[in-house]
Amino acid sequence: MVRVLNGISLTAHAGAVTTLLGSNGAGKSTTLGCAQGLLKPDGGTVRLLGQDPYSGGSTLRSRVGVMLQDGGLPPSVKPMALLRHVEGMYSHPVNVDALAQRLGIDSFAHTTIRRLSGGQRQRVGLAAALVGNPEVVFLDEPSAGLDPQSRQTVFDLIAELRERGLCIVLTTHLMEDAQRLSDYVYIIDNGRNVAQGTVAELTAEATTATDSRTLFFTATPGLPAPELRDAGSLVEEAAGQYRVDGIRSPAALAEITSWWAERGILPTSITMEPKNLEDVFLDIAEGGARG
Amino acid sequence: MVEPDRYGLPVAPADRETSTNAAPLARRILRHGRYETAAMLGNGEQLVLAVVLPLLALFGLTFTDILDGIAEARIDAATPGVLALCVMSTAFTGQGISTGFDRRYGVLRFLATTPLGRAGLIFGKALAVLAVLVIQMVLVGGTALILGWRPDLAGAPIAVVLLVLGAAAFTSLGLLIAGTVRPEATLAITNLAWILLAAGGGILIPGSRLPGVLADIVAVLPSSALGDALRDALIGGTMNIGACLILLGWTIAAGLAATRWFKWN
Question: With contacts defined as CB-CB under 8 Å, which chain A residues touch B36?
């Protein structure tokens, strides 16, 4: 038997997005599996809405929505047929047509799940998690494979669920997603939570005036990486989502804006972050490797 | 509870008045049974296995002399075994393959997180097996009646019990395989087993017609037990207790093994 988790301790509150951030294989999905009642932990305590999720009955399950990492969707079924089937398991489901329309599922309602793109499947999986009108939502890698537009749709929806007071627990290995979505972040590494806090808390600790900043911007996908002298290198984190680390001076920023001007790039969004989650994460990972 | 809103999003927890949001148990199981039945009937390969191959077996056994001497008419000797074959097609091979692939795609895990749960999933599947079985009985039994099948009606209630018992045994075996090996292996094992048992497992042709020690081995197989017991019921109107016990034994053994070793992911 392999010990996947060893010292995970976390709490998620209503009206907040709690994120488990970690690299692949860190133990995020296993943690969620325990919290959802799909796995029985060998030790420790798990409470979901005050009950043990593994032995909890249909009443407990009726209050919780789950989106699995691999989707958990039957390939030969059409999206609406699946959503209608899941809807039938609940006494007070949401309005399925409205939910499907909101997530753009109505535009591919008559295609079997097997023939959908990765991003379309993700949206069906998200809808399946919400159809039952849950109070707690577990989303395992909700942004994986999404194009920028559906990514925005999904992010807006998660924000709205939070405003309504739902408890949202999600996992991601993308720093930017964690940064954009989370109220509270647990960094998971090697089956343990090694750091926790709000994004501001996690990133503020070691940031000083002379520390490097990170620039995030959204533009057309597939831009060729420019030669940058002052700033760090350009990384396309997801289609059209770019990151430039190591901006230590106004000159470095000017270097990037002049590259935009040369190439005729007008980004749709720009943000600058002080020391970002990735830096925190790398600091911890290096510390872990040294220790 | 406040009605979910027109935007299709979950209601704020603070606005909820009741604590449960699960549909009643019976409705969940019935709905899942209907869903699984539709999935089985919508799959071309499953239909070939469930209806076309049994009908071919029925014609084959009726127009050859393989079963001569068992009953007064060939169709009377052939039909009980073909009905047993229908059970094996649906409960074992068909249901085993679909469960194996549902497991691969995470469908079992996802549905286990809904109010349906693990138990509801299994009951729903069992319901779908029975529903497809009823359709098979109508199609295959109806064809046999047209071909002149005259079953012993005294054995009809016994046959119904046997069909359900056989379905339980083969469903347990199918779930055991589907829950422990890869879906490709489940596909290979259950298809190969279907062919071997149909040809020489005592289901269509009584195991007693096999030579020597082979007959003794085949006699304890669920295929042979179901075939023999259905022939005894529908040809002679009698209850084959020994065969019933063998089927019961397979159901319990495979059921316990599946409970112990079935992996949901």
Answer: none
CATH for the A16-202 domain, from 3.40.50.300, 3.30.420.40, 1.10.10.10, 3.40.830.10 = 3.40.50.300
Contact B184, B178 (CB under 8 A): no
Do residue A65 and residue B264 have CB atoms under 8 angstroms apart? no
Pairing of strands A16-21, A64-67: unpaired
* B 58-117 near A (Cβ less than 8 A): 102, 105-107, 109-117
Give the separation between CA A111 and CA B108, rounded to whole angstroms.
22
ipTM of the complex: 0.89
For chain A, which residues make up each domain, given as ranges? 16-202, 212-273
Digit-by-digit pLDDT tens for chain A (291 residues) are 567 787 888 899 999 999 999 888 888 999 999 999 999 888 889 999 999 999 989 999 999 999 998 879 999 999 999 999 999 999 999 999 999 999 999 999 999 999 999 999 999 999 999 999 999 999 999 988 888 888 999 999 999 999 999 999 999 988 888 888 999 999 888 888 888 999 888 877 655 555 778 889 999 998 888 888 888 888 898 889 998 888 888 888 999 999 999 999 999 999 887 666 777 777 776 665 543
CB contact under 8 A, A133 and B115: no
